[in-house]
Amino acid sequence: MQPWHTPLTPLSFLARSADVFPDVTALVHGDRSWTYAQLHAAVEERARALRAAGVQPGDRVAYMMPNVPEMLIAQFAVPLIDAVLVSVNTRLAPEEVRYICDHSGSSVLVLDTVHWPEITQVAPELETVRTIILAEDDQHADQPLARANPAGTHVVDLETFLAGASADADELVWAVADENQMLSINYTSGTTGRPKGVMYSHRGAYLNALSEIVHSGFDHDSVYLWTLPMFHCSGWCTGWALVAAGGLQVCLREVRGPVMWDLIDRHGVTHLNGAPTVITTIMNAEEAHDLDQRITITTAAAPPSPTMLARMADRGFEIVHVYGLTETYGPYTVCEWQKPWAELDGPARAAKQARQGVGMLTADRARVIRTDTDADELIDVPADGATMGEVVMRGNNVMLGYYQDEEATAKAFAGGWFHSGDLGVMHPDGYIELRDRAKDVVVSGGENISTIEVEQAIAAHPDVVDVAVVGIPDDRWGERPKAFIVRKDGADLAEEELLEFLRDRLARYKTPRHYEFLDVLPKTSTGKIQKHTLRAQEWAGRTARIQG
């Protein structure tokens, strides 16, 4: 190694902050808090305990936990011994958890006790997990636990597990020899098949965390509330970013309006991340009020409507709009603020902010390419803000590939760029704007209809809380858009009023003729609307009619 080259790793962030800010509070959960020195010590204790339990470099260690301190500590402790962290979605069914543990080859599963009753159903079938560690949170310590050991699996509580740390006296090195080695595996949602394991490197996580610091504006005075699941894209690398900045992280077990507002007021929260559904929960809570301090919300998952952006700004929130996927460590582009936008009126300014923007500081420039050519032939669409194509990305913020899936990896990187499957346009100023997922575009009478465009028009109505648009079968046009809407409490919004509202906002062929009002839209644990569920129920009816 050359003397001027130090391999990049987010481990270095905590090593530095523990030296520079040893007595500064790094983490808060309930009535407990950890300084940076104490967080550093907690990480080393768990790293030693894992090593004493037989975890070797390269081994996979699965964690299934809500946003509690153990989950954040794991993001440093597991890679500290050159092992690979597998963060498991806490809302998955037991069989899905079993698949991820087996596919990743995880030898250890660290489990919050609240999930133990379900996991007992599949624990005997786990092929590679030899140790299950049950971490009891103070709020759930009195739960009755079925601790009968599954065949071949050792089940132990966290306290007993940590006692083994004293048996490991070998050196812990807060560095890596190869910055491109695997740090974590994050599984996709698997809405169209088995979830794929997305591999992150130390280098990618380090650089993405730096981008988060710059674009979200983290610093030593930042107080970050964990509304985004830590299991999702390694928490967008935000846990590493806050540690690097020397800020304070506030853990949150459940995303509920009253709890969030209590923590916002009690700790003086300055930042939080989440999907638009998190924003909706905050805005619609009875406890909602104008802010005493500015809060920056970094949001993604689905494009926030200009109407929602304007509402948040009026309340005192500052919105940072980003876009990315599990395959890009979370955010890849950011709608970089331009000073001239401040001179625009509210709706025009919000429309600018609703775009997905440009590559983040450490990312390459995103492209929008034609979809009517060979996958390996990447031709940019005109930068006219109208011609749709597929968004492709490459560089520091893109995954190493899919774990044990060379075929899917090769397909995803056809032509040397990662194919997102998202459709968008390129504006003349170089900002991209999503128009749809390729699978969500409604093709009606040969015309492509962007469901996002339709959703944003509907969301502008003051009585609409949430909306999803999908294509439904139509005997004449092939398919037509249908809107599923959640109304504001007490509102009696009807189809006729919506049609009148949309008359001057959407072209006639884009305007839905069918509406269904629901109490809640089906969503994933990360806040993404499950359009495939809505679409399936509509098309199933047609299939039944044809077969009948």
Number of helices: 17
Please report which band the strand proportion falls in: under 5%, 5-15%, 15-25%, 25-35%, 35-45% or over 45%.
Answer: 15-25%
Strand order of the largest sheet: 2-1-11-10-12-13-14-15-16
Rg (C-alpha, Å): 24 Å
Helix-strand makeup class: alpha/beta
Percentage of residues in helical conformation: 25-40%
Number of strands: 26
Q: Kindly report the average pLDDT value.
A: 89
Described by strand count, sense and barrel closure, the largest sheet is: 9 strands, mixed
Task: Give an overview in words.
It is a single chain. This protein is of the alpha/beta class and about 550 residues long. It is globular. Residues about 145-150 and about 545-548 have low confidence and may be disordered.
State the main characteristics.
single chain, eight-stranded mixed sheet, disordered C terminus, 26 strands, 30% helix, nine-stranded mixed sheet, globular, alpha/beta, 548 residues
Explain briefly what this protein structure is.
The chain is 30% helix and 24% strand. It is α/β, with parallel strands linked by helices and 548 residues long.
Write the layout of secondary structure elements.
Elements: H1 11-20, E1 25-29, E2 32-35, H2 36-52, E3 60-64, H3 69-80, E4 84-87, H4 94-104, E5 106-112, H5 116-119, E6 131-135, E7 154-157, H6 158-163, E8 182-187, E9 197-201, H7 202-216, E10 223-225, H8 233-236, H9 238-245, E11 248-250, H10 257-267, E12 271-274, H11 276-284, E13 295-299, H12 306-315, E14 317-325, E15 330-334, H13 346-353, E16 358-359, E17 367-369, E18 389-393, E19 401-402, H14 406-412, E20 418-426, E21 432-437, E22 442-444, E23 447-449, H15 451-459, E24 464-474, E25 478-487, H16 495-502, E26 514-517, H17 531-547
Parallel strand pairs: 1-11, 3-4, 3-5, 4-8, 5-6, 6-7, 10-11, 10-12, 12-13, 13-14, 25-26
Antiparallel strand pairs: 1-2, 8-9, 9-19, 14-15, 15-16, 17-18, 18-20, 20-21, 22-23, 24-25
Helix pairs in contact: 1-2, 1-9, 2-3, 7-9, 10-11, 12-13
